[in-house]
Design brief:
Layout: E1 21-28, E2 31-38, H1 43-50, E3 69-72, E4 75-78, E5 91-93, H2 106-113, H3 123-138, H4 148-153, H5 161-167, H6 178-188
Parallel strand pairs: 1-5
Antiparallel strand pairs: 1-2, 3-4, 3-5
Domain 2Fe-2S ferredoxin-type: 22-98
Pfam families: Fer2, Fer2_2
Keywords: Iron, Metal-binding, Oxidoreductase
């Protein structure tokens, strides 16, 4: 049987080059930022390495500690798990974007007043997660501990200490400042 060899005019049978970068626009803390990034770049690395926004921390790099939490279109997200190219056109808010000029965000003030941190490494992620969590509760999203009758009405979920602890359970604090974190969040709860 005759075999037919297929020849390719490209470099010695090598596949054609693939463009592994994309240009995208992220709306970071109210400003449009145009970036050209490798497709494998996480949002966390884009923020830290390409934009100099170092508030979100690289803790576990596996989405388990919450130190990298930011808000994407108003919802909290672990930025170490998100590919930056998939966030093209989305609004990203980091800890650096929460203050109103020189005035800290009320959550930032509450964390300071309650001394809700020790080493501070997890604090930016804790604050961004708390802000997202407040929005989720306001929008009526139940948690594992939300009473069924409360969840059924679809209205805002009241936040007590148990509800806050459950909703913040994805953010770890190696120093154990959890009681003060809960108190700080309670201080800004409507």
């Amino acid at each position: 049987m005759d075999t037919i060899a297929w020849t390719d005019d490209t470099d010695a049978g090598q596949p054609p080059p693939v463009d592994d970068h994309s240009t995208l626009t992220l709306h970071i803390n109210g400003s449009d930022r145009k970036l050209t990034l490798d497709h494998r770049t996480t949002l966390l690395d884009a923020l830290r390495e390409h934009l100099g926004l170092i508030g979100a921390k690289k803790g576990c790099d596996h989405g388990q500690c919450g130190a990298c939490t930011v808000l994407v279109d108003g919802r909290r997200a672990n930025s170490c798990l998100l590919l930056a190219v998939a966030q093209d056109g989305r609004r990203v808010t980091t800890i650096e974007g929460l203050a109103d000029g020189d005035r800290p965000h009320p959550l930032q003030e509450a964390f300071l007043e309650r001394d809700a941190f020790q080493c501070g490494y997890c604090t930016p992620g804790q604050i961004c997660s708390a802000l997202g969590m407040l929005g989720e509760a306001e929008d009526g999203f139940p948690s594992h501990v939300t009473p069924p009758d409360t969840a059924a009405d679809g209205g805002p979920v009241p936040l007590d200490a148990e509800e806050i602890r459950e909703r913040m359970s994805g953010n770890l604090c190696r120093c154990g400042a959890y009681p003060r974190i809960v108190e700080a969040i309670e201080d800004v709860t409507p």
